[in-house]
Amino acid sequence: MLDFNLFKHKLGSYQNCVQYNQDRVQFIHASDIHLGSHQYRNDYRADDFVRVFQEILELAIAYHVDFILLGGDVFTSLEMLPGKLDKIVNILKEFYQYTNETISIIAIEGNHDIRKFSRGVQFKQRGQSWLKLLASLGLIILLDANLEAPPMEMFKPYNFKTRKGGKIQIKNLMIYGTRFLGEKPISYLSKIRKGIQNDDGLFHILLQHFGIEGQMENVPGINIDYIQPLKHRIDYLALGHFHKQFILDGWIYNPGSPEAVCSIDTSFKRGVFLVEIIGKEKYIKKVHMIRLNNRNHLWETIVCKRYRNKFDFYKYIIQKLKHSLKALNPNIEPSNSMMPVLYLILKGLKPSKSCNIKERELSKLIIDEIPVVDVKIYRKFTNSSKSLDKYL
Fold first, then answer.
1. Does residue 90 sit in the same domain as residue 57?
2. What is the CA radius of gyration of the chain?
3. Which of 297, 342, 357, 362 could form a disulfide with 372 if both were Cys (CB 3.0 to 4.6 A apart)?
């Protein structure tokens, strides 16, 4: 269970430490939190995504930031158990109570925020999202432009009564944002550029949810040449979508997912950016990457002999893991993020048909014997010893 006594310092002590400085702004840039994710149908993993969101809010308090930017995919889909949503709402309410609403959370909708998953089919549920619900409760500021309006009219100032708008000014910073523009947002970029003022003397941030070609292997994105014209209007392009962290050309920033959403994410550099903007009209920008207290992830590979009995096979696997993972603490609780998720690659000769390996059965046996919170098994077997030699 998560502890909802989140922000334990007294409200007064926090407020007394905050010093208002018009020419210095700090913010946290995060994205792709994927709240509601129920990875491997594991409740502890589901809590990890909520916990990392809580940690981002705690960082905002610790660094006395002016606001938090969320670059989309705050939620993993429209389907979420009521209890999980209730936890998130309570976290946000306590955060705003503790900070006396002095730290704004500014977000846009990503592709996952507007998706519903039903019977394995993905489709967009237009006009609905949990972010819209949080905005209606006054817990976040949700930015979105009128993409059908003329460029100079598309970014209306955020209205706190209607909870709508495409831009908001905080001190000397103007933040623009739109919802996810689809898989091919190039057609909108020229219009967005024209809709952003370039003569107001403010530091401009554009909050968007798309990837850039070449930053993730075999994953499509926008060619950076289409983005370069924005540089004349934008000082900080705050991206979300790709779970891998990257910084390009000193003005394009993608923090990556704060928690590993899938197995490939475990190899990525990711976290959040702490950004400091100093000055007036001529700005100095300092960007620091912060890693979070994520769940540990372990990869193990076991080369197998051919087995005809699945229980002998299971016994062999567990013996191998007990030896290679003997350093793990057997007394740790699954709620502790130090207890890892295990990704197990099985190589070698393919077991006979009579062996009839069942991954869920093997996973449960491993979890019972080894202090891991969950196991994801990958079979990479070959059929002959000659192929095995080449394969290894």
1. yes
2. 24
3. 342
